[in-house]
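[Q] Does anyone have a clean structure-token version of this?
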Amino acid sequence: MKGLESIFRPKSVAVIGASTRKGTIGHEILHNIIINEFNGKVFPVNPKASVIHSIKCYSTVLDVPDAVDLALVIVPREAVPAVAEQCGQKGVKGLVVISAGFKEVGGKGIKLENEVVDICKKYGMRMIGPNCFGIVNTDPDYSLNCTFGKTKALQGKVGFISQSGALGEAIMNHAYELGLGFSMVASIGNKADISANEILEFWKDDPDTKVILLYLENFGNPRIFTKIAREISRHKPIVAVKSGRTRQGAIAASSHTGALAELDVGVDALFDQCGVLRVSSVEELFDVARAMANQPIPKGNRVAIVSNAGGPGLLATDALVNLGMDVAPYTGVTKTKLKKAISGLGNVNNPLDLVAGAGGSSFQKALSLIKNDKNFDSIIPIFVPPVTINQLEVAKSIHEGIKGTKKTVLACFMGAGEGSEGVNYLKQNGIPVYIFPEAIAKALSQIDIYRRWLDRPRYEFKAFKVNKKRVEEIVEEAISNGDEAIVGEPALEILTCYGIPAAMGKIANSEKAAVSAAEELGFPVAIKINTPQILHKTDMGAVVIDIRSAKEVKAAFTSLKKKVAGLKIKGKDRFSVSVQEMINGGVETVIGMTTDPSFGPLIMFGLGGIYVEVLKDVAFRINPLNEGNVTEMMEGLKTYPLLTGQRGAEAVDISKLKESLLRLSQLVTDFDIFSEIDINPFIASSIKGKSKAVDARFIIKKS
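[A] Here you go.
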């Protein structure tokens, strides 16, 4: 953290690569430091100039007579290692390397970047970049703008981290137009040394940073991010745009769980578990940020709308309702007072239509009544400016009408433009203004997600008593046999060792043994081919169910043996089947795990059976799981009502489902040898003790 302190709160800055030529990055960064009135010493460094921007220039950083906290490096990439070496010798504490052409271009760039990182480690320096836009700290004690953009950053409460340098200037410009102020900005580029995780940690206790925005292209260490973000989100909202939502195609997976993890479900799961709001665009990022930086978090999802035009009010209503918000009617005292206070009103509905001729007085009267109504958590004033009505007057009336409220207020001035006096007045008084009501609806719905996350109870991670030793033996035997997967009875035994109930079964190598097993278990039974090479048994017709006699057992055995006649069964094992107790009734669910290359194990739950990959109604969470994670997974499914009882059906044993997921999480934590796990189907029964896994497979990681 000391290195970050020197970068964001330096007492002295050297601009290595400062230039006399206007329009160059070296000139613009020095210019921005000066015109933003940095409260510290500035040292231009360039061996070809004696003075730049009326300031004495030095040939190298070693020639600077004073101590240097922060060095901005803007030189050709081949020169960066030598400059970093000089900075280390000088005792510089932090570097911001603007120069590009490193890891992002591959080849020699990777080698140069690693060389710079090694130099930083040698001297204990910390580095942001390379290939970045720079940094900003608007605190008047520093007034530091080390970017090459043309737009000044407004002082505010938002910390912004961007992995893209190219977006830097556009984002700064857009924020300025919206009146959104920053506390600090960090463009981290290739994040060769300092990552977003460390900056988040640095901002965690920063009193000037109330909201944190992220633009990310990839994660450095998702597990560290999880820990930091979960802690910060309890006190400061984090809103993120993560690019790369789709893949051109999922990596070939041999399990249902792997095939269902086609998109970046790891990112969604990570953000959801950490309370990070994920938005789909930079525009949405700033829509949410404006609201959260200036207004309180609503206590609920109930919204009141006041408009001088019917159409925009209806647009807002449709958007809000479609996003899960509640636009309830005005009732009781509020309805009576509104009717009495505002002449010309017809029916008093929500949205409240003040009619086109309504001016500031009508808005003020309506808002002053609605702000006291406990049935609403947020208020949206919508104003469509007629030529005859003064926008500034309406803005002042809106501000006066909501004065003193603790409700969230987001305004819409349709067609007014960002330069409107009325719009500027509201922004200056902490009321965000949007061009269209749909943007407000989207922002409020995102904030409501965060509100609900804050309201979630906190759960501890459970540890169950299990037979880990026996599972180790099963795994070791499979590996010694050269098996790629553990299926059949050994797979079900692994489940029972970890307390996950499984249907009883017996292995049979002959018709006689199969009949004996069926009679011992009791009819009806199911018979499956017991061959690890066959992962999707139903696809091959490798399962026969509801067998009710010895004759049917023999017929099934013969039929199944023909199915594998062309397969070369590995090892010393002969053809065999698994004879299993028949599990009737209940709801087929799927429980599983797949390994994401960035996030590690992802636990999955959803509707199971043969249609799992068609319906794709599944949820993923990053391992390990607690009871809260499991509850969210289940309740977030569209098919959740099938588990709770639909149209007279009895609810399944939800507690056993939850416990099984938690036990699987412990199994995954204990054994990192598995790349994928499928428990499909897991029959969820309404009868206690009858919920059981029917089939399972464990895919072993390739060494």
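[Q] Thanks! Anything notable?
[A] The radius of gyration is 32 Å.
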